[in-house]
Design brief:
Layout: E1 3-10, H1 12-16, H2 20-29, E2 33-40, H3 44-50, H4 60-67, E3 72-80, H5 82-90, H6 103-107, E4 116-118, H7 122-132
Antiparallel strand pairs: 1-3, 1-4, 2-3
Bound molecules: adenosine-3',5'-cyclic-monophosphate.
Length: about 140
């Protein structure tokens, strides 16, 4: 299986509740390595740009406001089939539909405040990683 990098964001609902360590433990237990990580408070412009693909969706403005409501942790996870593996570890977008043991089932508050974001394809992973990280930060 190919080794991949994927972009993960621990969202403001989770950083506010001090869940970073518990969420990172789930990634590591699943075999994902956190190869880069930083804590940021996104500007409105950054959040709008990051979620531009959802610009026409009814939840876009609320999503942007939520993502700038507190600090986030942006991180690069590496592992075999990391894009899919991370999505399995996160669980369904809506926590009501998420499987037992997933991050969103355990920690998410709602479909919006759903604790984590993860890239949905390898192509998007590369775009999203380069949005937040310089190549030199991924050199290990
Ligand atoms: P995320 O993986 O970060 O990608 C887009 C986000 O929009 C999603 O997680 C949810 O947190 C948020 N969102 C809010 N409402 C909806 C909705 N009705 N359908 C899908 N995503 C939603």
């Amino acid at each position: 299986m190919p080794t991949e990098n994927t972009l993960s964001i621990i969202k403001p609902d989770a950083t506010k509740r001090n869940l970073t360590g518990l969420i990172n433990a789930k990634f590591e237990k699943a075999g994902l390595k956190i190869i880069a990580q930083k804590r940021l408070h996104l500007s409105k412009e950054m959040a709008e740009k990051f979620y531009e693909v959802h610009k026409e969706r009814p939840f876009y403005n609320d999503l942007v406001d939520f993502m700038i409501s507190g600090p986030v942790i942006v991180q690069v996870l590496r592992g075999e089939n990391a894009v899919k593996l991370n999505r399995d570890v996160m669980g369904a977008t809506n926590p009501v539909e998420a499987d037992t043991g997933t991050i969103r089932k355990e920690f998410a508050e709602s479909i919006e405040a759903n604790s984590v974001h993860g890239s949905d394809s390898l192509e998007n992973a590369n775009l999203e990683i380069s949005f937040f990280f310089a190549g030199i930060e991924l050199s290990i």
